Amino acid sequence: MSSIDTPSIHAIIVMVITAVALVFYSRPNIPMATTSLGVLVLLAFVFSIYPAQWLGRTLDPMIFFSGFSNEALIAIVALMIAGGAIVHTGALDPLGRFLSKVWNYAPPLAFLLVLMVTAFLSAFVNDTPLVVLLIPLLTGIAIRTQRPVSRMLMPLGFAALMGGMTTTIGTSTNLVVVSVAQSLGLPPMGMFYFTMPAIIAAGVGMLYLWLIAPLLLPKRQTPLGDQSPRLFDATLHLGEDSPSVGKTLADVQKIAPGLRVRQVLRGNTQTMVPLADIVLRTGDRLLVRDYSNKLKEYEEILKATLYSGEQAVSEENPLQADDQQLAEVVVMPNSFLVGRSLANSLFAARFDLASLGIYRRGASLLSKDLEKEILRSGDVILVQSSRNTITELRQKGDLTLLDATTDLPRSNKANLALLIMLAIVLPAAFNWLPIAVTAPLGVLFMVASGCIEWRQLGVSVNSSVILLISAGIALSIGLVKTNAAHFLAQSFLTVTHSLPPTFVVGMILFFVAALANIASHTTGALIGAPIAVQIAHGLQLSPEPFLLAVLFGANLGYATPMAYQTNVLTMNAAGYTFLDFLRVGLPLLILMGLLISYLLPIYFPF
Description:
Elements: H1 9-25, H2 32-49, E1 53-54, E2 57-58, H3 71-88, H4 93-105, H5 107-122, H6 127-145, H7 153-164, H8 172-183, H9 195-216, E3 232-237, H10 249-255, E4 261-266, E5 270-272, E6 285-290, H11 292-301, E7 305-308, E8 311-312, E9 324-330, H12 347-351, E10 354-360, E11 363-365, E12 380-386, H13 387-396, E13 400-401, E14 406-407, H14 414-429, H15 435-449, H16 454-460, H17 463-481, H18 484-496, H19 501-518, H20 521-538, H21 544-555, H22 565-574, H23 578-603
């Protein structure tokens, strides 16, 4: 084995910046975007005041910003917007209703179907909003069937991770590795370039999640309950057999505690203010607004028919929240709300806002006594109202609204959004057009057709991901062009020179997987990719299996809750502990890692 070259001062600087970035990326209190921007600025600054030589020429420090023009980054941004449109239009709601129906007939098979559908969708759609959509579905099913939801949600999150690793667009981690590979001069990878070994490993992992993981997970009461923070406007139609007929509205509200009637409609034209002494008649229609489960409860108590628009509510015609937005209101120190409750400040009537929850210094309050909670300075109130109302409040400045305004999903553009998403994926899947072309084109059609509006594009795009990928490309360029990656690869080969290449691939995979679980999945991808390529060059072997070992290792974020965003979501929803992830995720990580280490040299020979 040849001796290890001494690293240059520029190589040492890049390695130090990389090590500091690793530490900062692993700190939850430091925003990932801040660290990424710091890496970009620091590299450009250092190489401007202290230039480096590359192939006989001075290295242009502006090369560290080249990641912003990378085609993979363009594809990522467009896909984030397209995925946001899918969520915004409620295009996945029918899937949730279908899975709920199947569960009534064969729960074990339905659970397997949920896992498989989740994995399939996460290969093309961002897995975080997908898991957000499916958590309430599984929670509701668990409550109805009296099953512990804690045995369902962790397998759901892991299934999304497995599906995400099967395509180049499945996760931002995959796109980071693919974009870094291209920046290092390797040929581009198609959408399904590494799908086959991923599917084989995921198939085995899916059986583990279906049959073994639920047995390892404890029975815990979910802290979520069966509510989702969304209010619906609906109409209760009173029939002849309704116990409310002939009674005053005050008496009816005693029968159905909590019922708040906004208007009473009688006949075709008469609209009445809901006074307490109004005597209700057959055929009256009560305009109400509440959570879906409460509305269904009132329907049952009053023996009325619940309508959404012109149609009775059913699984085929669910409750709609058209033109409704969620927003966050901050209680400032000088606000009239400080020291008062939502009820005694007449918050709802004064601003035409429905309160859904209160966020207070790390605790979310979604209780029945929400209206009675005494507000404090710094509280954030989650509210819902029409788009016009939210806009007027922001313009008037009566309340301090955060910019995190979100439209509630609507379904009138759902099929169109799915069709456009299909038009994005298929040409790229068959290599007719690159994904960097089809994705922006699809976004253009989504905006033009009204699936998503220009003002919502900023909400869909995650600036942290953009900066992260750009910083990753910058670090890779620095590691390669200063020969720091060559030095690190030589050091690794000195230790592993007597091992077969398959073992080396496995060591890279498990090393990156450890980084992914201890720090973050992006950390392993950013640092591992350029070093893996240099190790392959040092062994004079094809770099593909080594690079893909980094990609798959970064996706094996099963052993800790901080490894991936979906782990945090399921942890909060089901009340998991760190040991729960270790008990279920570590065996899965070892199983998947060994399988992939064995399969990579078969599908991508050295």
